[in-house]
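Today's session is about reading a structure prediction critically. Students often jump straight to the picture, but the first step is always the sequence itself: look for stretches that repeat, for charged clusters, for runs of hydrophobic residues. Only then move on to the predicted structure, which in these notes is written as discrete structure tokens rather than atom positions. Here is the chain we will use throughout the hour.
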Amino acid sequence: MTTTLKPVIRIYTDGACVGNPGPGGWGTIVKDASGEREYSGGFDRTTNNRMELLAVIKGLQQVETTAKIIVYSDSQYVVNGITKGWAKKWQANNWIKSDKKPAINPDLWEQLLDLCQQRQVTFVWVRGHNGHPENERCDRLAVAAAHQKNLPPDLQYKA
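Below is the predicted structure for this chain, in token form.
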């Protein structure tokens, strides 16, 4: 009997903001059997947490749905939101947290939950600014994106 192993795709992500809120950027590296690809982008006024979420979303949007995916992020907000089930609870409670306050960034959490439901995703937290090569590269991508001129508005950001 032959067993077909699913390919493993590694996604490394980071978000950055110049001020919080302020101009923001995200960076993503996708590593798979075909190689390594980098993606980045930004907005003129947003938050760091929005960019952390968007980095993961943009990375997941680049991969096939049958692969096993490991997402590496230095954002405890993102990793805990998924691995501890917070985002699913907020979604089930109409985006209200257990403290009865509105969940922040429901538009992005909704997208992330949808993508995770369609894929086999594992999240791994990595310590930021600690010499992890891909995390450091994603940080440079995100910071560079945040410093671009004429960034578009983040139309979903609510101050």
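Discussion point for the tutorial: The chain has a mean pLDDT of 94.
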